[in-house]
Structure formats: C-alpha cells, structure tokens
C-alpha cells in the first residue's frame, strides 16, 4: 500500500497539466489530489481504467488476480480491434473464493495461474492486475510477478491499480506508470529510423486507427507503437526509440507522454484525428516534429501534397451531405477529446452545436471549445436526464450524439441518436472517418422511422375520432334545445 500511495500521489502531481502549470511553486507541490467522495468511481474504478488502457495490447495474456466478478464486469468493455493476435480476448482470472481469501492462498494461486498460462499459451508477456480484494488482504503481486518472471523466463508485469484507489481516469494513468516501470525501454530495436513515431492514447475503436495509418505509411512514417490500440508487446517495449509522439487523449495518458519526453527526449504534441482540419493539422505537426528531430525537411512538402489531395477528395464527398445537414442542430453528450474535436468536425459541414458536455474534459479541452463556439452557454458540466429529455422533447436539437447509457433518453423523446463513444460500430477518424460520421448522422436524422413514431398511435387516433364525434353530437343536441327554447320564447311574445 505505501508503494501504491506514492504512485498515486506522483500521478496527481502532473506538471504537464494546465491546472498545475498555472499554480505557484508552493501550490504546485500539492499536485491535483483531492479527497475522494462517494460515487467518485461510478463511471468506472481504477482497476477498470487500467484494464481499458492495457487490454488492447493484443498478444499479451491479461490475468486478473481477484474474484470472478472483477473480470466479468470489465472484460472486453471497449470496441478496440486487432489486426492479428486474439489472446487479449481470452479471459484469465485467479477466481479467488472466500476460503482462499481467509486462508491466505491468493499468492500461491496467482503463481500457479501464471505457470498454467505460460505452458498453455506461451505469450510474450503476462500482465497481472490487482483488485480491491487482493490489495486489501495484502497479496504482494510485485513479488509474485518478479519470482514468476525469473522462474518462467518471460516478462510478468504487475499492474497495481485496485479499484478503491480512485476513478477510472486514475487507473488509466496507473496503467501508463506500469508500462513505464516494466515495459517501455526493456527491448532495444535494431531497425530505428528517423521517421519512427508513437501514437499515445489511441484505442483503435472500431478499427478507426486503420483509417489513419495508411496516410502515415504513404509519408514513409512508421508507427513504432500505438499505445494501446492494436499494440504488440515488443512494439511498446521498444517505444523509447521513437523520434516523436502524438498524444490523442491527454486525460488518460499525459503522464506517459511527458515522462517519455523526460527520459528519452521524445517530444510530443496533443492532436486529434477527428475532422478534416484536425487530421491535416495532426499530420503537419508530426512532420514538423520529425524534422526537428533530424528527418529530411522534404517530408514537409510531401505532407502538404498528401493533405491537399485527401482534403479535396473528402470535401467532394461531403458536398452531397451539406444541403441535407446544413443548419441541423446537434447535442453532444460526451467528454474528453471528443468534446472539442467532434465539435470542430461537425461545424466544418455546417452543423450547429447547441450543447456539448465537458464533464471529462481538461482545461485545455474547454478552452478549445470556447474558441470554437464563441459562447460558453453551450458548455455544460453535466445535465440531468430530465433536462436532456426536456431539451430533446422541445425540439431544441435534431439529433443527440452520446454514449449508450443515454440513448434511451433520446429514444423516449423520439429524437434521432448516434453512438459516438467506445461502443460504436463505425470508425470516425481521419478523412474517410469524417465522411462516415456525416453519413451516419444523415442516415439517423432522415430515417423515416422518426416520422412514424411521432405520429399518434392508431388507438390514440381512434380515441380522438370518438371524442370528436361525442363533442359533435353534444353540440348538435345543445343546438336543438336552444332552438326550441328560442322558438318558445318568440311564440310567447307573439301571443302578447
């Protein structure tokens, strides 16, 4: 536990964080730590966050040291894709029972599990994750992993991120620390070039990084390690020999990018592959960093030529959608890098942003949104489900882009919805990804089902007709009575 506490404090004290950079030297020493509050891990615990970052390393065996429920609730909860190995999709757990916890047999069972995985699968490495139960009873996974590595002759990496340590985001950073401590720099490659880069914080959701990698290949740029999307253990182990890095999700792995710069002089920048303009700017930044690191300056000209060609193709494809989508209003209920990168991407085709969530966004993310939207009223930290429903039911947005947890709010409000989070089934990165995103929005908004569901149900129509007939009959009867009454009164006056 003392080791974990020190690591957590080190992660919170992040000098590359915008919030810390704005503090004086005395306040900066306190880092970003704050007391945990009930429900802080409701969106995912530290163990879950560590698993999210490391599980996409596809040729590694991921072993969960704890009860079965920990693995069952976290396995394959991301839409990452692999171009080769499938071992990462095999679930491994020590499945501790109450008896083993009480009797203190956890470490023995962990060592046995590592041996069985080695003999049955022969992976290049095994990652061992601690959980709340095993951390609380004091199982020393660091010692077990060290002994197993010596005994079996393969890397066994301890990931010390039990759920109670904090939120999912903290787990992301603790996973990055595990890579720094035990993986990156452990293998020396023999094929280093001046055009090697790392992509950090890219998860290859629905295979979307495969839409970007061909662009880099055409420029002669090699992705030495994509951390963690579609990664291999040896690629990450030799990532310290890259010449530059692009950080896609700073909220998750800014500590990894900064420390790689400090340890191995690998400069990095934060960018996005969402949207035409942002994709082009990311390619430019990569080329500039490589030139700064010694690459031939001619790569800058080739990059501009590639950008001009790809942008022309993308804009030609998007021209067909602009008349159908221009002026359409989108509500974004997401966070992190998507809170600004998707905003910029949609505004490029004339779509209006009526609101975007910044709950999981960094100060830099929020500043980018303010510059894009020019109105802070469109930013909201969080919106209660009732408020989201009222906004959609009142017709203030034509579609909502969010994660699966809020889709039913949009469906109840009879409003089109599109999945933009990790569970999505379509890739949205790069030039082709932007075209696909706009195509999916167009399909969702103009789906004829919405005209159908907004019409009154047949039984509601029948009830309305019956009510109208009843009212008409009542009016006719009332008119007949009034007519007789008027006639009677007129007759009495005539007699007089």
UniProtKB/TrEMBL annotation:
Residues 45-443 form the Nitrogenase/oxidoreductase component domain. It comes from Rhizobium aethiopicum. Pathway: Cofactor biosynthesis; Fe-Mo cofactor biosynthesis. Belongs to the NifD/NifK/NifE/NifN family. It holds the Pfam family Oxidored_nitro. InterPro entries: Nase/OxRdtase_comp1, Nase_comp1_CS, NifE, NifE-like. This is Nitrogenase iron-molybdenum cofactor biosynthesis protein NifE. GO terms for biological process: protein-containing complex assembly. One of its GO terms (molecular function) is nitrogenase activity. The keyword Metal-binding does not apply. This protein may play a role in the biosynthesis of the prosthetic group of nitrogenase (FeMo cofactor). Keywords: Nitrogen fixation.
């Amino acid at each position: 536990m003392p080791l974990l506490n020190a690591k957590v404090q080190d992660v919170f004290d992040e000098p590359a964080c915008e919030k810390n950079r704005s503090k004086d030297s005395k306040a900066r020493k306190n880092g970003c730590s704050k007391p945990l509050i009930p429900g802080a891990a409701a969106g995912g615990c530290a163990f879950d966050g560590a698993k999210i970052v490391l599980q996409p390393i596809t040729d590694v065996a991921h072993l969960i040291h704890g009860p079965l429920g920990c693995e069952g609730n976290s396995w394959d909860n991301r839409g990452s894709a692999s171009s080769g190995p499938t071992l990462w999709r095999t679930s491994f757990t020590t499945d501790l029972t109450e008896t083993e916890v009480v009797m203190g047999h956890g470490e023995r069972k962990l060592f046995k599990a590592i041996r069985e995985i080695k003999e049955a699968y022969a992976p290049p490495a095994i990652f061992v994750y601690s959980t709340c139960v095993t951390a609380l009873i004091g199982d020393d996974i660091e010692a077990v992993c060290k002994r197993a590595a010596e005994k079996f002759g393969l890397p066994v990496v301890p990931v010390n991120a039990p759920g109670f340590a904090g939120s999912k985001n903290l787990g992301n950073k603790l996973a990055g620390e595990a890579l720094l401590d035990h993986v990156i720099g452990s293998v020396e490659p023999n094929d280093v070039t001046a055009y090697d880069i790392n992509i950090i914080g890219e998860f290859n959701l629905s295979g979307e990084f495969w839409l970007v990698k061909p662009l880099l290949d055409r420029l002669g740029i090699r992705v030495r390690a994509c951390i963690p999307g579609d990664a291999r253990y040896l690629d990450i182990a030799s990532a310290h020999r890259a010449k530059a890095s692009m950080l896609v999700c700073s909220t998750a792995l800014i500590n990894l990018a900064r420390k790689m710069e400090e340890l191995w002089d690998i400069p990095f920048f934060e960018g996005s592959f969402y949207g035409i303009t942002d994709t082009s700017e990311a390619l430019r930044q990569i080329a500039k960093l490589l030139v700064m690191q010694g690459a031939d300056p001619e790569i800058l000209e080739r990059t501009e030529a590639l950008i001009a060609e790809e942008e022309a193709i993308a804009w030609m494809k998007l021209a067909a959608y602009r008349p159908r989508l221009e002026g359409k209003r989108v509500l974004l209920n997401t966070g992190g890098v998507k809170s600004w990168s998707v905003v910029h991407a949609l505004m490029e085709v004339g779509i209006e942003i009526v609101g975007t969530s910044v709950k999981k966004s960094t100060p830099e993310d929020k500043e980018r949104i303010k510059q894009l939207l020019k109105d802070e009223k469109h930013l909201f930290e969080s919106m209660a489900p009732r408020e989201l429903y009222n906004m959609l039911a009142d017709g203030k947005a034509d579609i909502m882009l969010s994660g699966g947890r809020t889709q039913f709010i949009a469906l109840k409000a009879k409003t089109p919805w599109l999945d933009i989070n990790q569970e999505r089934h379509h890739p949205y990165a790069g030039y082709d990804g932007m075209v696909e995103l706009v195509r999916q929005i167009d399909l969702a908004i103009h789906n004829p089902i919405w005209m159908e569901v907004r019409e009154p149900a047949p039984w509601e129509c029948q009830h309305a007709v019956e009510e109208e007939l009843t009212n008409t009959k009542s009016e006719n009867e009332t008119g007949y009575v009034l007519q007789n009454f008027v006639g009677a009164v007129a007759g009495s006056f005539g007699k007089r």
